[in-house]
Design brief:
Strand content: 5-15%
Number of helices: 8
Number of strands: 7
Largest sheet: 3 strands, antiparallel
Strand order of the largest sheet: 5-6-7
Helix content: 40-55%
Structural class: alpha+beta
Length: 257
Amino acid sequence: MVAHRIADGVILRLIGKWLRAGVMQDGVVIRTEAGTPQGGPLSPILANVYLHYVLDLWFEKRVRRSMRGEAYLVRFADDFVATFQYRRDAEGFDRDLRQRLARFNLVLADEKTRLLLFGRFAAVTTAEYGARPETFDFLGFTHVCGTDRRGTFAVVRLPSLKSRRKFLARTKEWLTGHRHWKRRDQQRHLTTMLRGFYQYFGLHHCQPKLDDVRLEVQRQWIRVLRRRSQRHRLYWCYLLSRAWFELPYATTCHPAV
């Protein structure tokens, strides 16, 4: 697949050597019989090239042309979402996709694969059965059928529960390992971590979820500070008036589309 675009034999031989080099685990070299070495710097690039031909071009050249209605594919690394206007098209794609991937020694992760009703008509359709439209997670966001400020349909993206738990686990681990740092230094590092989180998830509808994350980080920080002494006086009424305890609030970093 790489040779479709690159004719330089030196580069192609170098990639081949990389794939056959194997990996070292606990001082033991393990030869790779297939695929790319996990964790190798070249692996993400080759995976993208592989899926470009296996999935992207196949969907664009073959799948979309055979569908009765509109069809789109959004992929990032090995995660993707395929959308269809008609349910029959989606069911046919699910069947054809498994056969396509099997030809290239790939399989779908069944625990991460779902077929669901989503879009501007989902709320009306599910309301007939007394239910609400389903949601799905993609790239750290939970996608919800919602409305914009004018009351028209809009896809609302919120930080997923998994993303929030993962970030809070990181802050808790960092605080535990740096509990004896000076308070100002802890504040600067937590501020950097929160701003990084905000810059990715800073969408219009995400404000309440981001505020909850900030509050939980403060609670983690308080628990760590209180463990320094059994006679602490670090109560909320005291801490909230201290400049060194302030953490940045979330702001909308990405304009609404």
